[in-house]
Amino acid sequence: MKEKAIDGKVIRVLQGDITEQEVDAIVNAANSKLLGGGGVDGAIHRAGGGEIMKECDLIRKEQGGCPTGQAVATTAGKLSADYVIHTAGPVWTGGDRGEDYLLGSCHRESIRIAGEKGCISMAFPGISIGAYRFPTERAAGIAIETAAEELEKSSLEEVRFVLFDSKSYDIYAQALDKLEK
Ligand code: AR6
């Protein structure tokens, strides 16, 4: 585990399973249709139970889903968190289709929504670094820098990044080291 204090708040990077985190909100690396899928999305729906998809179905009916770079909140069902914040990360197609901006936006919007819900702590997985093939180093830099900027303005006290495998953990931990704060 690695952590850095920012104005009395903290960013943590750790290796583990996001469904087991004891935080107020966990973020899901969803798709824009909120239809569920593999990876961390599958793990969150499996562990949280059918209530989460019921709310995703409603959001899909009301607003068509969640555009790339945006985020929406649902219950966390059986998980210990109070909310799952679903964000649709960009698919990496080489970097010239606004992927960096959209990935930053995923983190900004998720943190904003967690703050609106009154959360004190939240956990992110590595958004877009799996099936969506975003280069992990580049994603880690954007994720950590955006979290640091947003944390300063937010009522949140902790933003945690939970990486499943040791290679991704090392890369996010290095990005936290590089953060100039
Ligand atoms: N806890 C933490 N991280 C996890 C877990 C877990 N339980 N399970 C997997 N990971 P991905 P994406 C890691 O593919 O690239 C889905 O089908 C995984 O090892 O889940 O944003 C959605 O429905 C990887 O490092 O998300 C979308 O269609 C990271 O989570 C699409 O995939 C993200 O990998 C989203 O793709």
Put simply, the count of helices is 5
Mean pLDDT: 97
Which series of helices and strands comes N to C? EEEHHEEHEHEH
Q: Percent of residues in beta strands?
A: 15-25%
Query: How helical, in percent, are the residues?
Result: 40-55%
End-to-end span in angstroms? Answer: 18 Å
Instruction: Record the strand order, biggest sheet.
Output: 1-2-7-6-3-5-4
Description of the structure:
This protein has helices at residues 39-48, 50-63, 99-116, 136-153, 166-178; strands spanning 2-6, 9-15, 25-30, 71-75, 83-88, 121-124, 158-163. It is an alpha/beta fold and 181 residues long. It has a 7-stranded mixed sheet with strand order 1-2-7-6-3-5-4, sandwiched between helices. Helix 4 (136-153) crosses helix 5. The chain starts with a strand and ends with a helix. The relative contact order is 0.22. It binds ligand AR6.
Summarize the structure.
The chain has 181 residues and is α/β, with parallel strands linked by helices. The chain is 40% helix and 22% strand.
Looking at this protein, list some descriptive labels.
22% strand, 40% helix, seven-stranded mixed sheet, binds ligand AR6, alpha/beta, 181 residues
Layout: helices, strands, pairs:
Elements: E1 2-6, E2 9-15, E3 25-30, H1 39-48, H2 50-63, E4 71-75, E5 83-88, H3 99-116, E6 121-124, H4 136-153, E7 158-163, H5 166-178
Parallel strand pairs: 2-7, 3-5, 3-6, 6-7
Antiparallel strand pairs: 1-2, 4-5
The protein binds ligand AR6.
